[in-house]
Amino acid sequence: MTTANVAYKQEKVFSAAIRAFHWLRALSIVILVASGFYIAWPYLVGADSTDVLLQGWIRFVHLACGFTLCAITISRAYLFFFGKSDIERRSFRDVIRPQSWMAQIKTYLWMGHLDKAGVYGPLQFVTYFAISLMAALMCITGLVMYANVFHQGLGGALWSAASWITESMGGLAMVRLWHHYITWGFVIFLVIHIYMAVWYGIRFKHNAVDAIVSGYDYHPEKH
Ligand code: HEM
């Protein structure tokens, strides 16, 4: 493909499943942050009001998105390890190579080129790993709180594991606090992630934001 006399190369980087999970996860996280902060501070209904329906609906939305996030977190971990394409797994090689870290830091200072084994740079890989771990922690602490509210069905099935985790974390109040603290991690991540995604496309002419929409990385031939 050519645009304004520059030849562009097209490369498939993200499968349909990875793209669908990315956007579904983004949507659930945004709704979870908003509904979670509302649960923590239900400012729309006065303390003496008998209107408890709004809180119930917001908790329902939180749980629906929460279970969506649980399902995506498990499916995404499966895809990372067992997916057909190894483009994500290959990036781990850069994480354990000090030269790759140096190359990445230098490119942030506009020196040299990023030479990656897979689709992510080492810092990007470590950040995504940390956010996946945070998602897993949110799912665990969320499910523990769920089991403390709903004692039958899934809540009942999770009860013995949930009470063990509650005790290990120092009580239910601590579970709630950690669930709340980690929420801020997602807020901070979201801002940096969007900034970096746009900046990366401009800086490297590679893997711009459209790659996670179309699945294709379009970049000039010489890059
Ligand atoms: C990125 C993911 C998530 C975020 C940002 C988030 C955020 C929050 C926040 C801020 C609260 C209020 C805590 C407080 O009272 O201070 C909350 C409560 C809660 N969350 Fe989450 N959450 C997430 C995922 C989940 C998941 C996966 C589940 C379960 C499947 C879940 C279940 C709950 C439950 C049961 C409560 C307590 C509701 C209540 O007290 O009525 N959350 N969440």
Automatic annotation (TrEMBL):
Molecular function terms from GO: electron transfer activity; heme binding; iron ion binding
Superkingdom in the source lineage: Bacteria
Record membrane topology: Multi-pass membrane protein
Keyword annotations: Cell membrane, Electron transport, Heme, Iron, Membrane, Metal-binding, Transmembrane, Transmembrane helix, Transport
Pfam family, one: Ni_hydr_CYTB
A GO BP entry: respiratory electron transport chain
Location(s) in or outside the cell: Cell membrane
InterPro entries, per database record: Cyt_b561_bac/Ni-Hgenase, Di-haem_cyt_TM, Hydrogenase_cytochrome, Ni-dep_Hydgase_cyt-B
Residue stretches spanning the membrane: 21-41, 61-83, 125-147, 181-202
One GO CC annotation: plasma membrane
Domain Cytochrome b561 bacterial/Ni-hydrogenase: 14-215
Coiled coil: none
Family: Belongs to the HupC/HyaC/HydC family.
Protein known as: [NiFe]-hydrogenase I apocytochrome b subunit
